[in-house]
Design brief:
Order of helices and strands: HHHHHEHEEHEEHHEE
CATH superfamily of the largest domain: Histidine kinase-like ATPase, C-terminal domain
Distance between the termini: 38 Å
CATH topology of the largest domain: Heat Shock Protein 90
CATH class of the largest domain: Alpha Beta
CATH architecture of the largest domain: 2-Layer Sandwich
Number of domains: 2
Strand order of the largest sheet: 2-4-5-7-6
Structural class: alpha+beta
Oligomer: single chain
Shape: rod-shaped
Length: 391
């Protein structure tokens, strides 16, 4: 673990370094002065002077000896005084060191403790806790900063509430658009079937058209009921209800209502998949409707099954998709249609993923587009609910 010095530690170490350096310099200065004083006294050479005086003037010998004794006593006293001064100076310097250090630590604590509280409060803010308030303390600059922080916290709390309300509103708008988009697909064949019944009313072909139209209407109404049930349970995070079924049979049933609007060719060998049947219907209808919007009603839509690779390929012969748009087509609200909100393929991607399948797109300009769905092996998914449901 890498050790990091905090502000307090750095300031205290710097203070101790400077104070120690000052103490050493002061001590050395005293030692130099004491040595200079001793040297000055020694340089007087009074002993030699007194010796010469005694030789020249014997009658002053006793006084000279007394002066020499006094001189030696003075030198001894000065030496003792110098030593005591050094000891007292060191003691007072150490005392000053501890007192100044205590005062310095108190000042540092007074200044840095609010900063520590600032740091802790900032961490709480980063976690989304905007109710935190700082107690004003310290210098007036710190109090002003704490007051500004508290005002910021209150403003962030208000902004958070506003964002949550805006997010809720956005979710409901997205939900409403998705619901409207999903309802639109079944309503189209219902409307066309009713128009056909009205058009053939009283004619000899009415009975023939009636059975087919009623079958389509019944099927699409059932899909609407399932859609309503699924969307009503959307907020409850309802698990995916997977079931084993033959994919070819479902494709033929779903595409029956589109045969009057586009030519659909279904080719390949049937196989069994584990999938939510309602999700499969939503996926296929969205992709087919997207192909119709892109290619037009006069084109041919090809659905190919590859049993060995467990692939369903849906191909249109429309204008294709530009390369820079291929990665965006599954993003919500991305669309280049004059009509539409860009939720259909985003929903397709989501439903494919939660059923543990994969979808990809290949497209060439002026050649058409291929949607390829890769299904999982039947035994790799339980026949009941998926453990990753709701993701």
């Amino acid at each position: 673990m890498k050790f990091r010095f905090g502000l307090r530690t750095i300031v205290i170490l710097l203070y101790l370094a400077l104070f120690t350096a000052g103490l050493v310099l002061l001590y050395q200065y005293q030692e130099v002065r004491r040595k200079e004083l001793s040297d000055e006294i020694s340089s007087l050479q009074l002993q030699k002077f007194m010796g010469d005086l005694v030789e020249r003037e014997p009658e002053y010998s006793d006084e000279a000896r007394n002066i020499l004794c006094q001189l030696n006593e003075i030198k001894a006293t000065i030496e003792i005084g110098n030593r005591q001064t050094a000891v007292y100076s060191a003691f007072y310097l150490i005392l000053v060191l501890f007192l100044s250090l205590a005062l310095f630590l108190w000042a540092i604590y007074t200044l840095t403790n609010p900063l520590s509280k600032f740091s802790e409060a900032a961490k709480e803010i980063s976690k989304g806790n905007f109710d935190i308030q700082l107690k004003e303390s310290g210098t007036w600059e710190l109090k002003e900063a704490q007051r500004s922080f508290n005002m910021m916290s209150v403003q962030l709390h208000k902004t958070q509430k506003q964002l949550l309300e805006a997010e809720k509103l956005s979710i409901w708008k997205q939900f409403s658009r998705m619901l409207a988009h999903e309802i639109k697909n079944p309503l189209t064949p219902i409307r066309l079937s009713l128009e056909r019944l009205i058009d053939k009313k009283g004619s000899e072909k009415f009975d023939q058209v009636f059975d087919r139209s009623v079958s389509i209407i019944t099927q699409e109404v059932g899909h609407l009921q399932n859609l309503a049930s699924n969307f009503s349970n959307f907020a409850k995070d309802v698990p995916v209800t997977q079931k084993q079924f033959n994919i070819l049979e479902q494709i033929r049933g779903i595409t029956r209502s589109y045969e009057d609007r586009i030519n659909i060719n279904i080719d390949g060998e049937d196989f069994i998949i584990d999938f939510d049947m309602m999700h499969f219907y939503q996926i296929l209808t969205n992709v087919i409707q997207n192909a119709i919007d892109a290619a037009g009603h006069d084109e041919i839509l090809e659905l190919k099954l590859d049993k060995s690779k467990r692939i369903l390929e849906i191909r249109d012969h429309g204008p294709g998709i530009e390369a820079e748009d291929i990665e965006k087509i599954f993003e919500p609200y991305f669309t280049k249609k004059k009509k539409g909100i860009g939720l259909g393929l985003a929903l397709v991607k989501k439903l494919v993923n939660i059923n543990q399948a994969e979808i990809s797109v290949l497209s060439e300009l002026n050649e058409g587009t291929r949607f390829i769905i890769q299904f999982a092996e039947p035994n790799s998914i339980s026949g009941g609910n998926n453990e990753n449901n709701g993701n």
